[in-house]
Each structure stands twice: as structure tokens, then as C-alpha cells.
Design a protein that fits this description.
This protein is mainly α. About 60% of the residues lie in helices and about 10% in strands.
Length: about 80
Amino acid sequence: MWKSRPVVASRVGGIADQVISGETGWLIDPHDLADCADRVCTLLDDSETAAAMGAAGHERAKREYLADRHLEQWATLFEQLPA
């Protein structure tokens, strides 16, 4: 997502927390190879959708996964701890 590319990924583990299906890419059943192929072909055929999903993924990565964001989350956590 950081590279502004849409993602087609299996709906397993933490990936499902990172990719917003239909917005930053698509989450698919890990055993559904036909769906995977369809989604990849759709992105290859529709550059406008691919660009929009890639841009949304990049913004999500900047907003949610950079070190600054993690520092903010730690600071918020420490502020909530009893003295």
C-alpha cells in the first residue's frame, strides 16, 4: 500500500486488518483462485480503479502505520494509565 498500489490479498491473519476490501484493494478467500485471478485482471484492465485504490492504500498506510502514528498511540496509552 505504501507504494500506492492496490492490494489483492487473502483474508487471513493481520492482512484483513490492513486492507479495506473494495477501498484499498480486495480481500479474497485464500482458496478461491478464480476470484483472485478476476480481481487481478480487473485491476489490470481498469487503471482508474487501480489508481484510486492505490492512492487510498497509500493514505491509509501514512495515517495508520508510520512510526509517528505508533508514537502517538503509545503517548495516548501512557496518558490513560493511572499515576
